[in-house]
Amino acid sequence: MNESQAKSSYVLAVISDGYCLYLGSRQANASAELQAYLTDTESRKRPALLSTSNPEPLIMGEPTDTGLVEYSGPTSGEFLNRLRIYENKQYHWEIFRLKDGRLEILPEGHGREVKSSIPVGKRQSGVRWEQDNRQCRGTLNFGNFLGSGWLGFSSHERLCFEVISAKLNYETEYLSLIKDLSEKALSLILDFETPTNANLSNQQEKKQQTPLEAYLLLRTALPLPDFQGVLSMIKARPHSMLQSDERWMPSSLATGMHAMSDPMGRIRWAKHPTSGKPVATEVLERKRRDTTNTPPNQFTRLALEKFAENCAVIAADQVSFGSRNAEEAKRYLEIINCELRNEPFRTASLPGRIPLENQVLQKREGYKHVLRAWLLSSQALTARDLDADGLLSPTAENRHVPDLYEYWLFFFLAEALRGLEGATEVIEHYLGELNKDGAATIKIEHSDRPRMTLLIPSEGKSRFVGLYYNRTFKKESGPSSYSMKLRPDYTVETFTDAYGTDYVHKRDNAARNGEITYLHFDAKFRIQKVGVKEIDVDAEEIDDLSAKPEDIYKMHTYNEAIRGTAASVILYPGNNPGRAEEDDELLSEIYRKYHELIPGVGALAIKPGDEKSREAALASLRKFILSAFGFMPDSKTHFTDFKKWEVQANEKMKDEHGTPSGQG
Q1: With contact defined as beta carbons under 8 Å apart, do 317 and 311 qualify?
Q2: In the prediction, which pLDDT does 121 show?
């Protein structure tokens, strides 16, 4: 069957015997024209794979370059649906009865309830779900929510697809963002040096993955060479513990070491046949031995058996899952079956409960990798959108990508600061934990406390640097604003090392002396291009992907209202999603430098990607931070010139009138 990429205005999918679902950017045709959808479909058929549980292929509409329904074709992300629709676009849907090869409109009173993964309970701009139950049709719009979506009657009668963005390449940049956040959540919790223990528990009613989903997630978490290495680490250093066994032994063979502590309970007595005196016949001996039948090994055996179960399904059905998947699953299965016949798993019993709180599972090499793979493949661990408490946690099918981008940028800023040349005394203040569902969460509260602090040594005075998330600047006291209360997404501050007992004490002393400098950053996922030329205040309509005047006004407000501000910067995804990984020149162009729109207000294109893109973005961000704070001797921007002019103007006004400019 044809697996090539296709772009159309609609797709038809058989979601169960007797029902067909239409999803497209325009309404389905009138009843008299429905049969045209099923005419000459051979070239338009595509394998359903993860899109439906029904073996019937998808039927794409006529190809068009402007189509909003895509079939991606074979990709590296085989755990993803190949069927794709776009964020912030309206789609029409309708479910028809499929009878004798013909489509029929469902009559009123059909009695079927249609559901979707649309987050209808969330009040988010752009999200829309409308339904006309009389004819089983409606419209939907996922707004800014990306990820796996679905629409249909039930878990077995539905169409699944991926909601993608025009700003980020879905399979590289968006999934890199999700992976970075998920890995950050897990690494904070499973880190060997984490001062607190994770409190994990298992939820038995968790949504189960299909065997293909579980297998592909396992392969993503532990590729075959890594899988073999992990099992070798466990075999080289299996967890063991001393176990006490008690059994009755003839008194002549017993040591009697523990018997006298309870002579009536631990010794069996009898009368001597001649003297009639009591003599010991048997003694309850306690023997201590080393055993590998421990909770970590029991869990690992359970995880391996679950992996084997899913791999066996894939290996046995080459037609449905493809020859490459089947062959690789067979190799996984061979390795697992071999390991299960050997120690420490051969003698390990199955656990009565999942010991997720076990520290060996969470932190020892080998075991922690199996735990991660099991969480990913069995518990559907991914990142999700932020809730009202600022929590990043798993399990949501659709994620609000502007919030995820904002959270990702926080950790990216932290990584950029951590990598500044000579940075020492790095202290991070994140709260990582595993919630009651066994899900990793990171909590970064909206707080006036620094989330990260570090020290930059220098030949003169060393500088402290702090990173804040949603720090509030008020008029009354503390970090001050000349006018209203302001809260940038991120604030980076710096000051020279002064007297004080700790960071906060030194910071407050520097602030009182006017020796503290701020950089403010706001995340704008909506923006794809930014520049003064694109910003026209008088324009009747501004491109949705361009910076709006209010975006620049807000940066101006930070500059003018918050004392000590050096610059305010917009962080946005930028152009050309996915192409930077393929073109070194384009990569350098995207991350070439900080783009100063007007004095003191600038923009940086920062987005997830592969290692090359990541390093280029980090280098660009670090260069700007060092330049803005004056760590680089040749740093010079329009802002520097503007500030020099302002100081000179104030001095001149003071000489002429005795009052600095703006204060009289």
Answers
A1: no
A2: 56
278 part of a folded domain: yes
Q: Side chain identity at 630, as an amino acid letter?
A: G
Neighbours of 63 (CB within 10 A): 13
Bridge partners, 148 (sequence order): 162
Query: Per mean pLDDT, which range of 17-21, 322-326, 485-489, 646-650 is the poorest?
Result: 646-650
Among the candidates 256, 272, 291, a domain finishes at: 291
Q: Please, what is the average pLDDT of the chain?
A: 75
> 222 and 151 in one domain?
no
Provide the β-strand partners of residue 284.
248
Q: Are residues 547 and 628 in the same domain?
A: yes
Spatial distance between the Cα atoms of 186 and 180, rounded to a whole number of angstroms: 10
Res 577 pLDDT > 50: no
Q: Distance between CA 218 and CA 224 in Å, rounded? A: 10
Residue 437 domain flag:
yes
Q: For the chain, report the end-to-end CA distance as a whole number of angstroms.
A: 80
Listing DSSP states for 129-150 in one string gives: EEEETTTTEEEEEETTEEEEEE
Pairing of strands 431-434, 440-443: antiparallel
Q: For residue 309, give its domain range.
A: 208-238+295-378
For residue 640, is it within any domain? no
Residue-level pLDDT at 388 = 36
Identify whether 171 is part of a domain. Answer: no
CA nearest 147: which of 526, 400, 406?
A: 400
Q: Which two tokens stand for residue 100?
A: 């004798």
